[in-house]
């Protein structure tokens, strides 16, 4: 019997081969070229061996598989781009053939003449689910947390290994479209209910259940290869089809504003593919996939949302020569809105936390926040009573700073006031060990300034969380002038421990994220003052791909906070640093109308009691003479939002505040949802090229003002034709070593 690196095959006396996928050098199985080659050989072996009646494929790991290794796609594209320079037609043909490799392999499996059953023992995603769909039978484990999904659309791709053809031939088209265009996960029960899998079985009896299907005479022929096959839920040209398709295209448009070519392509593949025989459908899918892979959207999303995100999570920016910290105890000072959230995510990671406030009562109130969050998780079935007890036992509320003794890291989240922060720093340092790291969660005060009162400024760092802490996946790690490498390493170890994504940012007013967010809101103020109807402002932002309109966002962060920031900027940087029309707008809202945002139920929006929905404050449009909506160019509004934010990101790079383009891109998507189809702020610029971007910025500058002035960095890049990923190449050291 052949030996495989990634699979083990055991054939029992019953003639059923159990193929166990277990990659030796990975924590999760992924589809690579090597895996495909071995699978190809295994299919041949199963067919050739007369003693084998059928095969069960399962995984030797907790999960079944995460799907295709997307770096394989990147390599395929890199090869394509190289070949394109020599022979464009041949390059496309090669890309088309490469794209079709997985499709061909799965088709070979399902037509090999012997029955295959996939025993899905754990989460099964993307290309691995497509492999399972090519099997004649599918049994899923009933173990908690097992998920099935085709999430390709989330990285700008779509299920291109037969997924768009098999899913709608197994389940009704509406469910198929929903599953693939959203990329959302299905539980085993839901997958069974839809008809995507045949059986749900207890984890321990999974392989046995799969074998039983074969023993019971499972036919090695897929439904679509049988004569007289009928689509579940009806054909495209049927009453059901006529009901579904016009609505499906409209819903997709509403959800994506046409920004995600891959999502639209799923509709095309299903619609066109169901009108033709199965093999032709596969060819249609292959052709579209070849096209989608070449789009800027797919390339940027794969890079930021898969490759860079993973690299940052694995500590790409961590100083390598410092030993990882195993956290025995973390201190959180200030059990308010943020501190309570930080205590929760820390305890959730299994780390003991001391939560300090000015009184025990206040500290206990902070701990109660964790109990509330857990109750919500329990309602959703995501946590058990046992998890609750364990988590709550890890949080010790206290009013005594002495309880911080022995902490490896302390995170300060007291009031945003220099004096209060100074006192907290001094009291903490009095009990902390020499090597303990002290982090501030300040959002506006530069870390270098706060560190001045510290006895150990090299151990002083910023850990800037976003609210709500339990949901927001990004943490900005702020380096003060004197912050040392050990503090950085510890901070990054901590962010990793709580399973969030860190970006490393050098100290500056507003750091990275808030500088960008302020630009977003500030452009909305400009539009309001110009008399752009408020609803258009909000809708244009969403059409540009932003998840929350700028006015809604400002309501969440509070308008009186904007007022405070404007006042502080005026005081620190002088009159020229703020637009007096913005000050007037914010003062009118806060001082005249007491509109502070969501927190007092009155902001740019009104917040009527539930179940009524929030709506824009009607009088907002009476504050300025309104333009005729028909004359406002919504495309220009969209550009203004994306360009003003991207320009700020470019300035941040020019100033050396952020130094790695991966961090600027990933940070912008995780923190404020910067149009994910662009791949983030810098990829947005790279995607159109610095030259085109500078031209666009110049036009906007002429029409709308100096906020659109491109920094020198960008005009230089426009001239040289460089991208951010070339100029600030994050892989330079690795490239040199190679
Ligand atoms: P908050 O007012 O909800 O909480 C502050 C807590 O600190 C209060 O419970 C207060 O009793 C406690 N406190 C004050 N002085 C103390 C002392 N000397 N010792 C111990 N506890 C003390 O404020 P918040 O919104 O949680 O903000 C806290 C920090 O986080 C601020 O620096 C803020 O800028 C920053 N931040 C806030 C947000 C946000 O969205 N609210 C986001 C990022 C960062």
TrEMBL record:
SUPFAM superfamilies named in the record: 6-phosphogluconate dehydrogenase C-terminal domain-like, ClpP/crotonase, NAD(P)-binding Rossmann-fold domains
Question: What CDD domains does this protein's entry cite?
Answer: crotonase-like
Question: Which pathway does it operate in?
Answer: Lipid metabolism; fatty acid beta-oxidation
Query: What UniProt keywords apply to this chain's record, in alphabetical order?
Result: Fatty acid metabolism, Isomerase, Lipid degradation, Lipid metabolism, Lyase, Multifunctional enzyme, NAD, Oxidoreductase
In this chain the 3-hydroxyacyl-CoA dehydrogenase NAD binding domain maps to: 329-508
The UniProt catalytic activity note for this protein reads:
a (3S)-3-hydroxyacyl-CoA + NAD(+) = a 3-oxoacyl-CoA + NADH + H(+)
Record carries keyword NAD:
yes
Domain named 3-hydroxyacyl-CoA dehydrogenase C-terminal: which ranges?
510-607
Keyword Isomerase (UniProt)? yes
Q: Which GO terms describe its molecular function?
A: 3-hydroxybutyryl-CoA epimerase activity; enoyl-CoA hydratase activity; long-chain (3S)-3-hydroxyacyl-CoA dehydrogenase (NAD+) activity; NAD+ binding
* Similarity comment text for this entry: In the central section; belongs to the 3-hydroxyacyl-CoA dehydrogenase family.
**By what name is this protein known?**
3-hydroxyacyl-CoA dehydrogenase/enoyl-CoA hydratase/3-hydroxybutyryl-CoA epimerase
Q: Lineage of the source organism? A: Bacteria, Pseudomonadati, Pseudomonadota, Alphaproteobacteria, Hyphomicrobiales
């Amino acid at each position: 019997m052949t030996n495989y690196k990634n699979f083990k095959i055991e054939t029992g006396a019953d003639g059923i081969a159990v193929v166990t996928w277990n990659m030796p050098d990975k924590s999760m199985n992924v589809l690579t070229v090597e895996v495909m080659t071995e699978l190809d050989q295994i299919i041949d072996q199963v067919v050739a061996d007369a003693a084998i009646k059928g095969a069960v494929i399962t995984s030797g790991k907790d999960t079944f598989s995460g799907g295709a290794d997307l770096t394989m796609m990147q390599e395929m594209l890199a090869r394509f781009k190289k070949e394109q320079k020599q022979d464009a037609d041949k390059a496309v043909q090669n890309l088309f053939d490469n794209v079709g490799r997985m499709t061909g392999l799965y088709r070979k499996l399902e037509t090999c003449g012997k029955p295959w059953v996939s025993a899905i023992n754990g989460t099964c995603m993307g290309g691995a689910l497509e492999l399972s769909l090519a099997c004649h039978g599918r049994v899923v484990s009933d173990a908690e947390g097992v998920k099935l999904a085709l999430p390709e659309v989330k990285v700008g791709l779509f299920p291109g290994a037969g997924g768009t053809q098999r899913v709608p031939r197994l389940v009704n088209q509406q469910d198929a479209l929903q599953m693939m265009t959203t990329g959302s996960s299905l539980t085993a029960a839901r997958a069974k209910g839809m008809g995507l899998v045949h059986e749900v079985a207890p984890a321990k009896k999974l392989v046995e259940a799969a074998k039983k299907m074969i023993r019971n005479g499972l036919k090695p022929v897929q439904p679509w290869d049988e004569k007289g096959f009928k689509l579940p839920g009806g054909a495209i040209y049927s009453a059901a089809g006529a009901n579904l398709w016009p609505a499906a295209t409209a819903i997709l448009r509403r959800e994506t504003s046409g920004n995600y070519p891959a999502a639209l392509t799923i509709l095309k593949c299903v619609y066109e593919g169901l009108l033709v025989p199965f093999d032709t459908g596969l060819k249609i899918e292959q052709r579209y996939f070849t096209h989608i892979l070449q789009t800027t959207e797919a390339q940027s999303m794969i890079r930021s949302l898969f490759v860079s995100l993973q690299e940052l999570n694995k500590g790409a920016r961590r100083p390598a020569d410092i030993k990882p910290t195993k956290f025995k105890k973390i201190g959180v000072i200030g059990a308010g809105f943020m501190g309570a959230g930080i205590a929760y995510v820390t305890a959730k990671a299994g780390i003991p936390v001391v939560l300090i406030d000015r009184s025990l009562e206040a500290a206990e109130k902070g701990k109660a926040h964790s109990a509330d969050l857990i109750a919500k998780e329990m309602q959703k079935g995501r946590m058990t009573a046992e998890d609750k007890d364990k988590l709550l036992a890890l949080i010790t509320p206290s009013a005594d700073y002495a309880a911080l003794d022995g902490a490896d890291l302390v995170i300060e989240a007291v009031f945003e006031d220099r004096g209060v922060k100074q006192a907290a720093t001094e009291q903490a340092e009095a009990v902390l060990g020499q090597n303990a790291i002290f982090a501030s969660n300040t959002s506006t005060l530069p870390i270098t300034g706060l560190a001045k009162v510290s006895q150990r400024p090299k151990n002083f760092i910023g850990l800037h969380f976003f609210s709500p802490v339990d949901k927001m996946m990004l943490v900005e790690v702020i380096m003060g002038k004197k912050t040392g490498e050990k503090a950085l390493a510890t901070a990054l170890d901590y962010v990793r421990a709580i399973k969030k994504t860190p970006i490393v940012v050098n100290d500056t007013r507003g750091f990275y994220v808030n500088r960008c967010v302020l630009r977003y809101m500030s452009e909305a103020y400009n539009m309001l003052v110009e008399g752009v109807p408020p609803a258009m402002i909000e809708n244009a932002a969403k059409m540009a791909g932003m998840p929350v309109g700028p006015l809604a966002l400002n309501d969440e962060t509070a308008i009186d906070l904007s007022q405070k920031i404007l006042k502080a900027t005026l005081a620190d940087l002088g009159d020229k640093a703020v637009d007096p029309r913005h000050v007037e707008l914010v003062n009118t809202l806060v001082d005249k109308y007491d509109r502070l945002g969501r927190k007092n139920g009155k902001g740019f929006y009104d917040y009527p009691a539930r179940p009524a929905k929030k709506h824009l404050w009607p009088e907002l449009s009476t504050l300025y003479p309104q333009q005729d909506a028909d004359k406002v160019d919504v495309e220009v509004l969209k550009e203004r939002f994306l360009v003003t934010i991207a320009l700020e990101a470019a300035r941040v790079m020019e100033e050396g505040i952020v130094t790695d383009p991966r961090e600027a891109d990933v940070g912008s998507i995780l923190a404020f949802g910067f149009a994910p189809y662009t791949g983030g702020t810098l990829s947005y610029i790279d995607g159109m090229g610095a030259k085109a971007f500078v031209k666009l910025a110049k036009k906007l500058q002429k029409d709308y003002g100096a906020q659109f002035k491109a920094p020198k960095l960008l005009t230089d890049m426009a001239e040289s034709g460089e991208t951010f990923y070339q100029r600030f190449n994050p892989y330079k050291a690795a490239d040199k070593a190679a």
